[in-house]
């Protein structure tokens, strides 16, 4: 199936893919060729696709996915290629955020912000596992 | 007749000007390449969004959604004119402002009110000196204008639209065709132009395709209305984003070709002045020789 991944500021990928996984409101889901006409919003999470034996993983920060018979279009707000990430650094940031989140004097707004950041770091980590 | 010294001075001065215009051309060319790349990278998102909105909204939704519903005879119209902060870019601002003038005197007569908002110092100065009412918007960091900035801008205008401050909004900017060609464009954003309307011959085909699409039921993950609304907000923001990028690339393109012309003109002028200088010098030598010869004969 034809896959297009775009963000408002760049075309990220255009080409063939045999299967694709992404994070929707109900968790991770997969898309194979011949899918029904399907629209989903995307949550913060990893997105990866396979073409032959080659796999490519991204971290997506919200957006949409539209799938039909023979094409998938990903309209992401922000996309990051997992290959450019450093696992040790991500883990360090994750541990750091955990420490700050468990402190007692965190205000609710800060907590939400940190929690989102943590989700993003987690998505990065899971993207690295692909 | 100009003396040798004044001609020499002029040549030096023209050469200095040429150095400046050449440098400006180089700078504009380098920045143009970046702006052009940003523009090309941003176009696919809008196109994909557009085709999806076209097939996801049903005909009824297109007629009833307040961002899509067409108003035949709007009373209050808003123009957002994108000019540049700096000059020395050929007809970039002039052409655009002339088009606006034309719009105001011809098409806007059927509206009760036409409000002007201006981006860029050149446009502001233009309307200020003509004492026309305008609203001046300052955009920070145009060089690295981000989609997030466009979203902020779009949502501000969307609020005004929903409050009924205007019934139609046009973005007025130069579309970048090439470094030597920029086309003034009026892009309607509120309400959004009908998708697939201005395609001309292919409309019939589009309609068939649309009907077929409608027969295929869509499976939604999440609330359809919410997703559609979010798609529309992004779609609108992408209009603002692209307009700024187009305008930016056009400005640099216009400046590059204007400075290229200026550099060539300077070369021509240097050529002419050098010719004049050589003639004057030859004339001086000839008179001097005549004096010497006459002096020698007199002895």
CATH homologous superfamily classification of the largest domain in chain B: ATP synthase, F1 complex, gamma subunit
Order of helices and strands of chain A: EEEEEEEEHH
Largest sheet of chain A: 8 strands, mixed
Whole-angstrom Rg of chain B: 28 Å
Molecular shape of chain B: elongated
CATH architecture of the largest domain in chain A: Sandwich
What CATH architecture of the largest domain in chain B would you give? 3-Layer(aba) Sandwich
Query: Spans of chain B of 5+ residues with little confidence (pLDDT < 50)?
Result: 197-205
Q: What structural class do helix, strand and pairing data of chain B support?
A: alpha/beta
How many distinct domains of chain B?
A: 2
Q: Tell me the β content of chain B.
A: 5-15%
Oligomeric form: heterodimer
Distance between the termini of chain A: 20 Å
Question: Can you identify the CATH class of the largest domain in chain A?
Answer: Mainly Beta
* Count of alpha/pi helices of chain B: 7
Structure description:
- The complex is a heterodimer of chains A (130) and B (299).
- In chain A, strands 1, 2, 3, 4, 5, 6, 7 and 8 form an eight-stranded mixed sheet that branches.
- Chain A is elongated, with a radius of gyration of 16 Å.
- In chain A, a hairpin with a 2-residue loop joins β1 and β2.
- The longest helix of chain A is centred in the last third of the chain and has 21 residues, at 108-128.
- Chain A has two domains: 2-82, ATP Synthase, domain 1 (Sandwich), CATH 2.60.15.10; 86-128.
- The two termini of chain A are 20 Å apart.
- Chain A is an alpha+beta fold.
- Chain A has helices at 87-102, 108-128; strands at 2-7, 10-16, 19-24, 27-31, 38-51, 54-68, 71-76, 79-81.
- Chain B is of the alpha/beta class.
- Chain B folds into two domains: 4-24 and 262-298, ATP synthase, gamma subunit, helix hairpin domain (Helix Hairpins), CATH 1.10.287.80; 30-256, 3-Layer(aba) Sandwich (Pyruvate Kinase, Chain: A, domain 1).
- Chain B is built from seven helices and six strands; from the N terminus they run ααβαβαβαββαβα.
- Chain B has helices spanning 4-56, 59-64, 92-105, 121-129, 147-162, 203-215, 224-298, and strands spanning 76-82, 113-119, 135-137, 168-178, 181-190, 219-221.
- A five-stranded mixed sheet of chain B has the order 3-2-1-4-5.
- The longest helix of chain B is centred in the C-terminal third of the chain and has 75 residues, at 224-298.
- The two termini of chain B are 32 Å apart.
- Residues 197-205 of chain B have low confidence and may be disordered.
């Amino acid at each position: 199936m034809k896959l297009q991944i775009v963000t408002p500021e760049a075309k990220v990928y255009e080409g063939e893919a045999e299967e694709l996984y992404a994070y929707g409101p109900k968790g991770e889901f997969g898309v194979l060729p011949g899918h029904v006409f399907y629209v989903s919003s995307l949550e913060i999470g990893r997105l990866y696709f396979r073409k032959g034996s080659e796999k490519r993983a991204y971290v997506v920060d919200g957006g949409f996915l539209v799938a039909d018979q023979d094409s998938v279009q990903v309209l992401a707000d922000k996309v990051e290629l997992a290959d450019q990430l450093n696992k040790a650094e991500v883990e360090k940031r994750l541990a750091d955020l955990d420490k700050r989140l468990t402190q007692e004097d965190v205000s609710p707004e800060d907590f939400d912000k940190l929690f989102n950041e943590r989700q993003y770091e987690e998505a990065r980590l899971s993207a690295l596992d692909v | 007749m100009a003396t040798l010294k004044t001609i020499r001075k002029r040549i030096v001065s023209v050469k200095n000007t040429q150095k400046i215009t050449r440098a400006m051309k180089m700078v504009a060319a380098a920045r143009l390449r970046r702006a052009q790349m940003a523009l090309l990278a941003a176009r696919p998102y809008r196109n994909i969004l557009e085709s999806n909105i076209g097939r996801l909204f049903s005909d009824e939704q297109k007629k009833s959604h307040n961002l899509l519903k067409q108003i035949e005879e709007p009373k209050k119209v808003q123009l957002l004119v994108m000019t540049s902060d700096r000059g020395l870019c050929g007809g970039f601002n002039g052409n655009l402002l002339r088009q606006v003038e034309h719009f105001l005197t011809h098409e806007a007569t059927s509206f009760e009110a036409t409000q002007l908002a201006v981006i860029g110092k050149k446009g502001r100065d233009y309307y200020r000196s003509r004492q026309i009412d305008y609203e001046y918007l300052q955009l920070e960091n145009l060089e690295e204008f981000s989609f997030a900035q466009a979203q902020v801008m779009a949502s501000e205008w969307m609020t005004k639209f929903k409050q009924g401050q205007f019934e139609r909004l046009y973005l007025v900017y130069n579309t970048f065709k090439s470094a030597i060609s920029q086309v003034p464009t009026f892009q309607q954003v509120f309400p959004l132009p009908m998708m697939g309307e201005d395609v001309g011959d292919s409309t019939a085909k589009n309609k068939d395709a649309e009907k077929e699409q409608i027969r295929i039921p869509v499976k939604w993950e999440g609330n359809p209305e919410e997703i559609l609304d979010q798609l529309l907000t992004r779609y609108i923001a992408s209009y603002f984003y692209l307009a700024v990028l187009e305008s930016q690339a056009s400005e640099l393109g216009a400046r590059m070709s204007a400075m290229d012309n200026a550099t060539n003109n300077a070369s021509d002028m240097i050529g002419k002045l050098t010719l004049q200088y050589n003639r004057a010098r030859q004339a001086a030598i000839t008179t001097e020789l005549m004096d010497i010869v006459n002096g020698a004969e007199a002895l």
